[in-house]
Amino acid sequence: MNPPSAALAQGQPPLPLQMSPTTSRRIAVISSVVGLHLAGVWALQSGLLRRAVELVVPVKVMAELIEAPQPQIPPAPPPPPQAAPTPAPRPQTRPTPAPRPQPVASPSPAPSELAPQVPPAEPAAPAAPTPAVAPAPPAPPAPPAPPAVVLPSTQADYLNNPRPPYPPLSRRLGEQGKVVLRVFIETDGTAARAEIRTSSGFERLDQAALQTVLRWRYVPGKRGGTPEAMWVTVPINFVLE
Question: CATH number, domain at 234?
Answer without folding.
Answer: 3.30.2420.10
